[in-house]
Amino acid sequence: MRILLIEDDVMIATDLSRSIKEAGYAVDWVQDGVSGQAALDGGTYAAIVLDLGLPRRSGLQVLHTMRKGCDATPVVILTARDGEDERVEALDAGADDYVVKPCSFRELMARLRAVIRRRDGHAQSLIGTDGLQLDLASREAVHRNVRQPLSAREFAVLHALLERPGSILSREQLESRVYGWNESIGSNAIEVVIHGLRKRLGADVILNVRGLGWRVPKDDA
Length: 221
Known about the structure:
The protein is an alpha/beta fold. It has eight helices and eleven strands.
């Protein structure tokens, strides 16, 4: 799952990027509104963390362009602007949440998880099937009522597969969800992660579809 971070403060963005990766998400970071719009035009993201006071094009302009183009990607505003007028304007323009700096990373991630859940139609932090679930808050897999902690890569792969059980995801699709820009990717990196998940959770939880990719079985009708 990829997060787009549009933030011009290098120190804040560096810390956030590292923390988002540690939480199991891929992150792409740009420093201005024009680059942010280009990233949106060229990629698909689970959510966006957007500063308002950006160079070249403001965060509000980026948001307006997104919504006018029917881009419904969840947006969490992260800004130092704490006035009521700014909050109202951003929310009315289509922001899904508004967070004022400084903000704890735990709170920001909780808000990100909440807007992603709302996008996917989930009321709680558990997603998946009757046989296999993923707890987005604790980053644990739940299989046969047993909880298993996951690494960042395992979490990202399982999250992608469990968003739409039964759908086949190719290696390229999983790589795009798990890795951010400029991250080196081994030729069999996804296979290694899936092998580890199947070894811990059971070979039947993730099925290989020869020549196409992998899928998690849907619940029986």
